[in-house]
Write a structure and sequence with these properties.
The chain is of the alpha+beta class. It has seven helices and seven strands; from the N terminus they run E-E-H-E-H-H-E-E-H-E-H-H-E-H. It has one domain. It is globular.
Length: about 220
């Protein structure tokens, strides 16, 4: 099996994590997205398309609508990620659904106090409705609400490049032109601003021999 085809990254001791954010250089409690973090997200999105699992879904979660403050938002989103990772693994392993490993990129924002997170995902068509229903149910449970209303909004992604630059518009203005992003004030957030799933993260891309300029990979044995 090549690194490109591998669905998981093995951690020391044999433990496998399907949805663990990749470490990036943005700091906690920052006012903008750093250049390396933005590049990591853009590269991950391009690589996802190359692996045959292109970003096709844009989920936005409004923490304001949930009555959640900024200092709690990051932890709630992480809990949701973990919960949905378990759900995804159950669908894949126990129910035998051929959905591959989770693929996603997120970016937190807080413009003018409108605290929310953008979450770009690859959702196979046959699991789309089930995933959205599971996400709403679990988000409500984590937030302690019976009805989350319109706090979770889902859109189809047509032009992934444009959507990617939209969710990363909180980039440091000094690097906006370099990455062809129109910068905007996305406020301060008290958690890591961006992250990706392991399968499209920096380590996975390196193991696959990904060439970012050509958007191609070298065939290598999985580590």
């Amino acid at each position: 099996m090549t690194a490109l085809a591998a669905d998981v990254i093995q951690k020391p001791g044999g433990h496998t994590s399907w949805y663990k954010v990749v470490s990036v250089t943005t700091k906690y409690g920052t006012h903008s997205i750093g250049r390396r973090a933005a590049e990591n997200a853009l590269h991950a999105i391009r690589y996802a398309g190359l692996t045959g699992r292109p970003i096709n879904t844009h989920v936005t979660i409004s923490f304001i609508a949930l009555g959640v403050h900024d200092d709690e938002a990051g932890a709630i989103f992480r809990r949701l990620q973990v919960s949905l990772s378990r759900w995804w693994r159950y669908q894949r392993k126990d129910k035998g659904r051929g959905i591959g490993a989770p693929v996603g990129v997120y970016a937190h924002a807080n413009p003018a106090g409108s605290r929310h997170v953008h979450w770009l995902l690859h959702l196979p068509e046959d699991i789309h409705e089930d995933f959205v229903a599971a996400a709403k149910k679990r988000l409500g449970k984590i937030a302690g609400l019976h009805d989350i209303g319109d706090a979770l909004h889902v859109q189809q992604v047509i032009q992934v490049g444009g959507v990617a630059k939209y969710i990363l518009r909180g980039i440091e203005p000094a690097y906006a032109e370099y990455l062809h992003i129109r910068a905007a004030d996305e406020g301060t957030v008290a958690c890591r601003r961006t992250g990706t799933t392991r399968i499209i993260g920096k380590t996975a891309r390196k193991l696959a021999g990904w060439n970012r300029k050509r958007n191609t990979v070298e065939t290598k044995a999985a580590a």
